[in-house]
Design goal:
Blueprint (H helix, E strand, L loop, with lengths): L23 H13 L3 H4 L12 H13 L9 H13 L10 H8 L7 H29 L5 H17 L14 H8 L14 H6 L8 E7 L5 H15 L4 E5 L4 H13 L3 H6 L4 H16 L2 E4 L6 H15 L3 E5 L12 H19 L2 E7 L20 H7 L2 E6 L13 E9 L5 E8 L4 E3 L9 E3 L2 E3 L2
Parallel strand pairs: 1-5, 1-6, 2-3, 2-4, 4-5
Antiparallel strand pairs: 6-7, 7-8, 8-9, 10-11
Helix pairs in contact: 1-3, 1-6, 3-4, 4-5, 6-7, 10-11, 11-13, 14-15, 15-16
Amino acid sequence: MTDLWTGELTEPADEQTWTRPRDLEAERTVAASIMERSELIDELDGLVDPVDFSDPRYAHIWYAVDELRHDIRGPIAPHAVHKRLLKMRAEGRIPGVPFDEGDLSILFREAMPASAGYFAEQVAKKAVASRLVDFGLKVQQAGMNAAFDENADLAALQAAFDGILRAGNDTGGAKRVGDLVDDALERAVTPPDPGDRIPTGFADLDALTSGGLRPGRMVVVGARPGVGKTLFGTGLARAAAIKGGLPTLFKTLEMGDEEITDLVVAAEASVAQHHLVSGSCDANEVRKLARKRQAVADAPLWIDATPGVSIPSLRNQVRTMVRTQGLRMVIVDYLQLMQAPKAESRQVAVATMSRELKLLAKEFQLVVVVLCQLNRASEQRTDKRPMISDLRESGAVEQDADMVILLHRPDMHDPESPRAGEADLIVDKHRGGARASITVAAQPHYSRFVDMADLSWAPRVANGQEVAA
């Protein structure tokens, strides 16, 4: 074996006869078929790629035919293919001429253009199997390496695993704008499908985001300690999972799963959290809890309090839950407590984590909500309102986020504030949408924020005490 990440692997000395999966007959048939019908190259695009051929001689025929078909209509004779191969060899593009003209004539007679699609699929399938074998060798080599690094090596192996299906198709996701423009015009007159969005639980925030949070995006929620990052995060989880029935994962790095469950239950049942925690709920509160028990129990909400979460471990968990549970949203509480990768500075480490979380949202088409702690800069301002620049290590986080929501509670700094019991959701960045400041009611007594309109049925709370609505 050679270098771990180059892919240049050799079999062990005692297994010289061992070969990777391949189907040489299928490769011959595809090469012969494109000689007889060169337009098959376009038809087979997406099914097979020349790099999928285990025998590079057939890949060379593919490249030769691809060049000739623009000048020759109809079948491309073995003589023409041979001349082009000689030219490619003379230009140094291939190491040698793989077939003489007689061999090419024999190959030409083996063409089966009507079945080329089937044989192309077989070639591609064997290529994936071969790359999987190569990946297994990489895993074995990494695990046996005395310098094995859990974070760096697992991340590299994960990237290698992701490349098994994508190998040799680096431009497979590229699309011409001409193929996309009609969809853009249709979107201009078609309101978004509510089923594609994740509700936030706040009417004004849902309206600002055209029906809720959009899959494939990273939402950063920033606040100073004690303002309510976790309450806001559990509120999003409740809106998505309990009210919307959308599978949601809440990764808590600061609290235990029991504490998060208490917050969810107290907020759903409108029961004072300190009564729940202290076991002092009265008969009325017990009835409220009983009424909400089944709705909470049936919700597709997972709470994970595993400590020391790294990006590779989170990515593996998300991959599994997307496949098995249909996961739609991930909430991380909070970024600064994640296990940072090795880097030359804290800023670089946070930038790496931020970028990976953004890619996680995009790859799996999830909403990824990242709770972040703000620095002390807002406390030096007269109005104490946070700004996007207050995000710790803000450069990369601000850049990667599709939306940044900053939480502000006036009564945190002025108990006599006329806005006691209110909170501002400051949407300071909104890619593709408007920015705004949305006022909601803060009810820390019930472990939640709610729409101001909801105060008609729930007591208003200021400084932990109920006041008249």
